[in-house]
Amino acid sequence: MGNAISRDAVPSNLVGALLRAGLKMETGGLALLLAWQQRAFGFASMHSVDLDVSPLFAAYIGAACLGIFCLISYKFDISAFSRTWMIALVSVSACAGMLATVFLGFDALTGWADYLAGAVVGLASSAIMYAWSFSFAKMEANEAFAATLAAFGISSALCLVTALTGDSVQVVTAVLLGLGTAACYVVVARREAGGDAAAATPDHRPVVVRPRRSHGYIYGLAVYAIVLGVTAGTKAAGSVLSIKFELDWGSAALGLAVCFLVALVWAVSKGRLGLAFFVRLSTPCIVVMLLSNVVFPVLSTYGSLVSECVWTLVRLFAFLLMLELARREEASIALLFPGVFSLLFLGFAVGELAGQVLFLHFGSDAQTVLYVDISLVVLAVVSASFLMGNWGSDLDSSVGTGKALTPAPAHVEPASAAVERDDAVQTACARLVKAHGLSEREADVLGLLAKGHTRVSIAKRLFVSENTVRVHVKNIYVKLGIHSKQQLIDLLDK
């Protein structure tokens, strides 16, 4: 029957939706996190002057290590990912990240300790954002878009105000921002659990249900991150303290202006154009900026402001993309966030390292700069081809615009009827398990079979091989004295 926009897909008063989103605790928490990331990574960048391998590179490698951390944790004990565990993760990450921020901000470390502090900042920031993703996944599409956009605006305003203060005040403010986002998360987590931090355990099963079109888009974002990383590495390698104020102030002001422009276009277009449009529009901007580096080298320093703003837009777009895929149940948040953002941060780190090396060793060679810029232009165009690829109109228009496109069903089953049906299936399965002496694992397989799952999906959900599932199904059929799935359905209906 095609796709239809849900009744609440785009709110009638978009300006009011943005204002209401700005008052949410989740919005405030994400805004504080983004502002802290901006300041903390800025401190790491100032320690990267004249270095081939820099603390900024270590920071993004640390952020990319979230995927490894989650993979090991899932394999070790996935059931331990309770609400209490998430609160503890955010609290520990905030404390470690703030301590590392203080060391970097006050230039209290030297040598390898700078790299360690950068890695801690990166891993802590990505871990906190990982926790926030579960709260945003509970929102409707338009609600999540408005909250993310409002958080971007608030964080830009905070960075703008912070840039006008002294160095010591900036460090203290960065610490308060980090502790503030952790406090907001604790409040939200306890509210979601109804005051019981151990309740309402989020779904952390890293199970891909329907892997489809997401790969091309994610790879495109990763290539885009490499391009933006090269410009960031060039900036970090050649940063001069005398223009630090202009760079910090200009980056925050540009972010605030872009946020206002996105909100204006979103409101005027009645939700048809949003962040996705601006991510696409950023490609020609990046191309023009790279080519202008060759024609007008004096503008190259300030061109990094554009790439820094685009990098923020790309991260937020990836965040909204991840939420949309989770809503469509193509994959769980537990798999999406570590996978997508680890790939994104790794791409940026590779680009940052390349930018540092190229600037330090070939920055004075005009011919080499020309070749590098042309290569980056090609990469930007290639990544744009992924971003504008054959995705289909439903996902392409829903991500980054606030629309929630869902299939229009011929009949919607009432929630109470669905619950009653699930209860009846569970009761019938429990009866068969008790009557025929099925083992605990066989009971799990039976429950999934009764709900219509295939052997492939059962294997993924139970983290076992398909051959193991086949053996369990055979044993179930033998114990129940049946030979087909239809006979199993008949037994459940008795």
In short:
Pfam families: GerE. With 494 residues, the protein is an all-alpha fold.
Number of helices: 20
Using only CA atoms, what is the Rg?
25 Å
Following the backbone from N to C, one meets helices and strands in this order, namely EHHHHHHHHHHHHHHHEHHHHH
Name the CATH class of the largest domain: Mainly Alpha
Q: Report mean pLDDT, rounded to a whole number.
A: 75
Q: At CATH's second level, what is the architecture of the largest domain?
A: Up-down Bundle
Q: How many DSSP-defined strands?
A: 2
Low-confidence stretches: 1-11, 195-201, 204-211, 390-394, 404-416
Strand order of the largest sheet: 1-2
Task: Quote the beta fraction.
Answer: under 5%
- Structural class of the secondary structure composition? mainly alpha
Gross morphology is elongated
Q: Write out the CATH superfamily name of the largest domain.
A: MFS general substrate transporter like domains
Major β-sheet profile: 2 strands, antiparallel
* CATH third-level topology of the largest domain: Growth Hormone, Chain: A
Helix % is over 70%
**Number of spatially distinct domains:** 2
* Cα distance spanning the termini: 35 Å
InterPro entries: Sig_transdc_resp-reg_C-effctor (IPR016032), Tscrpt_reg_LuxR_C (IPR000792), WH-like_DNA-bd_sf (IPR036388)
Protein name: HTH luxR-type domain-containing protein
Domain HTH luxR-type: 431-494
GO biological process, one term: regulation of DNA-templated transcription
